[in-house]
Amino acid sequence: MNVVHLLPSPHQYFFLAVSLLQSTIANSRRTDKRRSPVDFDVDVDTGFFPPHPLPHLPPAYAIWETALAEAGNMLSLGEDDSDPAVAKRISGQIWRSQVLSWPVIDTEPLQVNLRLLQRAHLVLSWLVHYYVHSAPPAADGVPFTVPESLAIPLVAVSRCLGMAPVLTFADTVLWNWDLVDGSLPLSIENMRFVNLFSGTEDERNFYATSAKAEFRGIEMLRIIDEYNNIPNLSDFTSISKVARDLGRLSGIINDISDIIQSVRPLVDPHVFYWDLRPWFEGSDAKGPSAPGWLYEGVPDSENLDLSGPSAGQSSVMHALDIFLDVDHKLRQRRYPAPSDGNKRADHGFMERMRRYMPGKHRDYLSSLAATPCSIRELAQQTPALREPYDNAVMALKKLRDLHMRIACRYIVTMSRSTPGAHGGCPVASMMDRLQSSRAAGNGPIRGTGGNELSLLLKAGRDATRRTLLKDN
Ligand code: HEM
């Protein structure tokens, strides 16, 4: 036999090479060492929550811890003229002058321990918001100076953690709890929120609602992780699993919608808008032209991210957007085409909110975004997956519809509320003042980062809708 006939022809060589390349790519999905969630400080059981309460800071930082523990009793909102608030003016001045007299404490010893860094971020960012918002309102056009005793260490620990030097979702929700029963593991029933600006149950319930959504998201993180680790996405068993998991995902998103809806009886909109939200405001809350905060002793302080906390910083919600491939930045040509309002909205909001997440969680999201095969592309190519995929997207679109109604009830409606609606509450005079100051020249209702709220939320909802395969 002529051995030459046994050798492949040039044509066959070409196909052999292509198929070898394809199988290498497929295998690379199988053998690629994906980093596990634990590498990103994401726990198998508690997700983005640390599995245990954060430890308190060592004695060298006792002045910070003590000031935080005392702040609730000593301080009131600077713009609040009610009798109980005015009664705290003297203690507030003492508290703030103590902060001004503090030395700048070196944070380097904390760098050996991630949990201590997180605790330092929590303590200092709460102190900054207490300091800023308990002070008498600043004169128009003058930036507010945050003293170096807070600003310098907060910026230092934030750089180590890779996150914004301001109060964030992590400081108010992910890290702000203790165990009810220390002998039992963390669960939504076994967690108690510790630091509260207003001291109200409404505030506690507000954090607990976001925490419930985070907890419900843990199963979703497992689904995403399992999807990213399926060795071969072309066989029947894998496709059936993906279809089933998309069904589970729709159920989880519906549950998160129910959780968001559950704030209605638990959080009074007046308490939220007038007693709590003012403490959250960041440097840019009054819009781009208003003077912001100055971090004393920090070079280029005007370039810091200082917008304040938002559930828009919840990594669970970002993971969902990434997994389903929601295009908030309008980079893809998708249908229905963006409305004029969608085009005018702040498309960078969600991406900016990632800078407020702990850096490791942001890296985790980047690792999800770098998945070799997006589930949207897979569903596009696989008829059996189109419907389950679209159902999950539709569930997320409904979540955003419902969330818009909540934001409208708690913010837009409240911004127009009259003091009388608070039911004869003694803070009426302060509300009058607040209401008129907020109505005067502040333009549209603003969310975190001074963005136009309704444009922003509608744009997010519409971007989600454009993710549907059936319209594309
Ligand atoms: C009383 C309850 C709530 C109110 C008043 C509210 C209000 C807002 C507002 C005003 C924004 C715009 C950005 C900002 O200013 O922060 C926002 C964004 C956002 N909120 Fe909420 N929120 C509430 C509860 C929740 C909960 C429980 C979640 C659950 C995860 C959530 C998830 C989000 C997300 C993901 C965004 C980013 C925008 C988007 O994805 O559409 N919110 N929220």
TrEMBL record:
PANTHER family: INDOLEAMINE 2,3-DIOXYGENASE. Heme b binds at residue 403. GO terms for biological process: 'de novo' NAD+ biosynthetic process from L-tryptophan; L-tryptophan catabolic process to kynurenine. It holds the Pfam family IDO. This is Indoleamine 2,3-dioxygenase. GO terms for cellular component: cytoplasm. GO terms for molecular function: heme binding; indoleamine 2,3-dioxygenase activity; metal ion binding. Keywords: Heme, Iron, Metal-binding. Belongs to the indoleamine 2,3-dioxygenase family. The lineage of its organism: Eukaryota, Fungi, Dikarya, Basidiomycota, Agaricomycotina.
